[in-house]
Amino acid sequence: MVYPLVLLHGYGEDQKVWDLVRAAFWPDEHVVTPSYASRSDFRSIEEYGEHVYQELKGMGIDKAILIGHSMGGYIALAIADLHPEFVVGLGLFHSTAYADSEERKEMRLKNVAFLENHGPQAFMENFVKNLYAESFAKEHLGLLAEHIAHSSQFPLPALTAGMKAMRIRPDRRAVLEKAPYPVLFIIGLQDKAVSPDDAREQVGLPAHTQELILPEAGHMGMVEAPEKCIDAIQEYWRRINESF
């Protein structure tokens, strides 16, 4: 039996963000990329997680390896917390088990207000450029423009729902501490969205880990350093499957 790899996208993204990773697994029958980018009916990360879990169960998947980017990592942690028997591997890709600080919660509220007052296009023009390392952003203006254009198409209610759900998520460090499987961490040292110091601190929580440190990457390692990220994910996927 081969355990499938489930790649969970982050906020302001959809399954397209995983295109390069998925292509590296071709034929990709063992890779699943759910999308919840346009959903506005979820009020919490737990509701996102339950939706993904039920979708996967409906596909006949009883156990899986979950790797989540940013908000996708929060969703993966929620599934691992609520349905531990389902998860045989967990990866935090530019993500964190920490809850939002009070300062960050306030920033989320400001983001919601900006979205409601100015719309997705204006919000994404500011939001997207901060996802990349400054040097990468300056050298890839066309790529950033494509990212902004794509993300600006997501419905306003979905974007505000995701922002509000992230704001109230709980601390889930206990999931890492209790993990019976190795946990994968992919960390960008130029990341402005997830503190590299916080991310590296969490590497010490699980009993067994695998980590990839990307010194030149920001929050979008699958785009900024795709080869390294693909190698790490494939190695982790093989490691988990070979251990069962």
From TrEMBL:
InterPro entries in UniProt: AB_hydrolase_1, AB_hydrolase_fold, AB_hydrolase_sf
Residues covered by the AB hydrolase-1 domain: 5-232
Domain of life: Bacteria
Matching SUPFAM superfamilies: alpha/beta-Hydrolases (SSF53474)
PANTHER family: MONOACYLGLYCEROL LIPASE
Record-given protein name: Pimeloyl-ACP methyl ester carboxylesterase
Organism: Siphonobacter aquaeclarae
